[in-house]
Each structure stands twice: as structure tokens, then as C-alpha cells.
Amino acid sequence: MELNALGLDRWLANAAGEAAESCGPGLSIARVTAVDRGRYLIRGEGGEVPAELTGKFLHLAESAAELPCVGDWVCVHWRDAGTQASIHHLLPRRSFLRRKAAGRDVEFQMIAANIDVAFIVQGCHFDFNVRRLERYLVMARDGHIEPVLLLTKTDLVTPEALDQLIGQIRALGVDARIVCISNVTGSGVDQVRELIVPGRTYCLLGSSGVGKTTLINRLLGGDSLETREVSHTGEGRHTTTRRQLIVLEQGGLLIDMPGMRELGMLGAHEGIEAAFADIASLARSCRYPDCRHGSEPGCEVRAAIERRELSEEHLQNYLKLQKESDFNDLSHLDRRRKDRAFGRFVHSYKKQRDG
After folding, report:
1. Which of 14, 134, 153, 282 has the fewest CB within 10 Å, making it most exposed?
2. Where are the alpha helices (DSSP H) in the chain?
3. Could you write out the three-class secondary structure of 64-94?
4. How far is 126 from 89, CA to CA, in rounded Å?
5. Does the annotation flag 212 for ligand binding?
6. Beta 47-53 vs 28-36: how paired, if at all?
7. How do strand 253-256 and strand 201-205 relate by DSSP bridges?
8. Is 124 annotated as ligand-binding?
9. 54 carries a ligand binding annotation
């Protein structure tokens, strides 16, 4: 399979050319198609094979965020007659999906890379949640990825209820395209298929059970991926257990991934400003540059709320995400300083011991 069919566009090709020169002779370019507990699958012109990181790569990586994730382009050495590969180098990422690592660890977790469009999937029944939707939008915007919203399970709600849900989304200032889908009737699936362009990479973001796997099977034209029956609440059960890049028959590439329960903000200020562009635009007209949009005089954001052009709930979620990102950014910076200080201590100790 040619590399451009795997998504190697002009920007990535230039980066690949520069990286290939620095990697040295005998190495080829390939794309990471799956990551599962430190094991990798890569795909190049010769096909898809298992791969492992070299010891040097692991030694030089300062954090997990510098390790390959699904969608990354890497420099590899083919082994065992092309049935195995070693990953030597990670190419620059044109776009990415990342979040704060789950739990107490204040570190980035890379989810996927080099994505053109993120299909943000929400069910119209129990799953619909505008606060979670805003977090997904921040994640996509922060990684320089175009968002498209997919509202699934439209067969479970009335047309009037569906219009109300769309109205809630538009009230947030979201101008992204919205496609309404029913995996039962197949309505809207052709619209999604028409959005997929050969050589471009797409991903599905959403909670477990919103119909992501069923949608992929419809796009694939079969039952290649396992699905499970919905529960008594009307919600599907979790199926996908690992992130993987799938090559569609029409030529596009789609990354499937498990539902994410935690969407912590870290280093996401650019994404927050882009996802809340309506508030950011108003804030530029506030009297004070550091306006907190509370009781300050001359606050254009508060004025918009009083005119009922902006909802208080929308503003509070914006402020909450900013505060969360600020807190995690400081914690991350403090940890990096401690890690560097510890590294200097270890280096000094080894130098004294060996001297």
C-alpha cells in the first residue's frame, strides 16, 4: 500500500524526508496502526507487522508523550524478512489528541496523532451531555483537528426532541457540522461516508456505548468489529478495547478507540479559547484585560448574559475548564522541575562515584 494512501500528505512527507535523513540509511517510513500495552502494529508499503521500540528510543524518551501513539509516523528497520520491525524515530506530529493522564498523575497522555477530522459522537438518548461535548471540542481544537458532531440513536427520540438537542449545541456557539444518525435505520450513515476523503484520517470520539463500533461496521459494509447488545437503559455496552487505525474501502482512514471516562485538561488553553470562541471574542472587548467576568465593571461577557445572548452555564464551564487547565499546568511544570533536579542529582552522583 502506498504511503500517501495511508495519509502521508505533503506536510508529513517533508517531515518524513527530513527525519529519514537524520535516522540514517536502511530505515523506512511507516505508520502506527495499533498500540496495546506497549505493543505496536505498523503499516508501510510492505504491509502490517508487529513492531517494538529500540532500547535507544526508550532511553531518550523523557515522558510517555514522546512514545508513538496510533496515527504516528515512525522511522523503522524491517527485520526477519519484513515480518517484524524496530521503531527508531518518531516523526513530527501535524495534529494530535491528548489529555491529562487518568488518575492523579499530572502528565500528558497521547491518544492519537495526525488526524484531519474528529467525529465527536453523542447519543440522543441517555448519553447527551453538553458539558462533555465541550470537553471533546476543546480536545479537538487544542490538537488542531476539525470537529464534526455525530448525534446517534436518533430513532430513540422525536424530531422535536432532536431539534431541541441541536438548539442546545448551537446555543454554545458551536458552528461545527452536525450529522444525525440512526444505526438502526441507517439514516445519516451515507452523509458520514460522503465526508470521508481518500488519504485523510478521521477518528471517533465518544463515550462507551454510543454506537461508534456499529457505525464503523456500517462504513466497512459488514460486521468486522465486535458489537454487543444494548442494556435495558438503551445504552450500548463497551466493545472497543484498544486504539486502532482502520483503512476503509473508500480510501479514508478511521481511528477507533475506547470510550474515555476522564477528559482532564492540561496545556489546553489554545483549545479552550477556540472551543469557546464566542466568549473569547466578547472578552477582548472587556474594559480590563484580566477581567474574570464576575462583577467587574465594563465586562462584555456579563453584558451578553444580561442580554440573554450567552448562558451562565456556558460561561461557568469555560471558567471551570480554564481553572482546571491552569492548576494542572502548574502541577505539571512543578513535576518537570523536580524531575530535572533529580536527573541532575543522579548525574552528579554517578560522576562523583566514577571519579
Report:
1. 14
2. 10-23, 55-60, 130-142, 159-171, 189-195, 212-220, 269-275, 277-283, 300-306, 312-354
3. HHHCCCECCEEEEEEECCCCEEEEEEECCCC
4. 43
5. yes
6. unpaired
7. parallel
8. no
9. no
- Taking only the tens place, the pLDDT of each residue in 223-250 is 555 444 443 344 444 455 578 999 898 8
Which residue in 96, 318, 124 sits closest to 210, CA to CA? 124
246 and 135 both lie in a single domain:
yes
pTM of full prediction above 0.85:
no
Amino acid at 295: S
Rg (CA), the chain: 23
Distance CA 147, CA 137 (A): 7
Known binding residue 201? Answer is: no
Q: Indicate if the pLDDT at residue 137 is higher than 60.
A: yes
- Judge whether 354 lies within some domain: no
Question: Do 235 and 101 share a structural domain?
Answer: yes
Is 241 assigned to a binding site?
no
- According to the annotation, is 75 in a ligand binding site? no
Flag whether 148 is marked binding. Answer: no
Domain coverage including residue 42: 3-90
Q: Is 311 annotated as a binding residue?
A: no
Residue 30's SS3 state is strand
